[in-house]
Specification:
Layout lengths: L4 E4 L5 E4 L7 E4 L9 E6 L5 E5 L4 E5 L8 E4 L14 E5 L8 E5 L4 E4 L9 E3 L9 E8 L5 E7 L5 E6 L9 E4 L10 E8 L2 E9 L2 E7 L3
Antiparallel strand pairs: 1-2, 2-3, 4-5, 5-6, 6-7, 8-9, 9-10, 10-11, 12-13, 13-14, 14-15, 16-17, 17-18
Length: 220
């Protein structure tokens, strides 16, 4: 069966492919929902999708099961104390079997979580973990049964990266271990990570010396 693919870009543009990426149709043009640049998107299988970008932009794309069209709305990311997320959101992830949850990794080094993302007014939490608010969160990837493991790429203020593994599936706090550090293995920045399972992931990054980084995380 054809696979639907969503893509985002500059000026708030969003595209949809219903033929596995052979062709794309622009479903939102610049200024329709936002004029801010969009940086990432993630979706539940057969359900809602979530796009993020500059200045804390968060867009919920609601989809009726079985339909191909989306209805977009901009949601202000706030916690219970009405603190507002305003920095660029670099990464958005929604665990595949936990459809009410969304995680946002920011250029301000924070991870925000909502567990009622499909509510009329979702509430977010600014999660606590080692070096929260220092550097940036570049990417995240869930793995394991019901997404019980969360891999995180965390940059320091110099742009060097390390990988965190959260054993609580997004609750973070004291359930996080650092895999290596910002200089071990040496790197000039990791850009993306994908987890194959709870114990194995692949990350890719910037050129160091002659070659770009392709790293494998696995049991020793």
């Amino acid at each position: 069966l054809p696979i639907s693919i969503l893509a985002v870009g500059a000026g708030g543009r969003i595209w949809l492919s219903t033929d596995g990426g052979i062709s794309f149709t622009k479903i939102y043009d610049t200024g329709t929902l936002t004029s801010n640049n969009l940086t990432a998107i993630d979706a539940q299988a057969g359900g809602n999708a979530f796009a993020v970008g500059a200045s804390g932009t968060f867009i919920r794309l609601a989809k009726t099961p079985g339909a191909s069209s989306y209805t977009g709305s901009v949601i202000v990311v706030k916690d219970a104390a009405l603190n507002t997320l305003s920095s660029t959101i670099n990464s958005v992830r929604t665990p595949k079997t936990r459809g009410d949850e969304v995680y946002l990794g920011t250029a301000g080094g924070e991870i925000w979580r909502s567990r009622n993302i499909n509510a009329t007014k979702p509430v977010f939490e600014n999660k606590t973990f080692d070096r929260k608010g220092i550097g940036s969160i570049v990417d995240m990837s869930f793995a394991g049964l019901q997404g019980n493991i969360l891999f995180v790429v965390q940059n320091d203020v110099n742009g060097y990266s390390r990988v965190l593994r959260d054993f609580s599936g997004g609750n973070l706090g004291n359930d996080v271990e650092a895999i290596g550090d910002f200089v071990t293995p040496g790197n000039f920045g990791i850009n993306s990570i994908y987890a194959a399972n709870s114990n194995m992931a692949v990350d890719v990054g910037n050129v160091q010396g002659t070659y770009a980084i392709i790293g494998m995380i696995r049991p020793s």
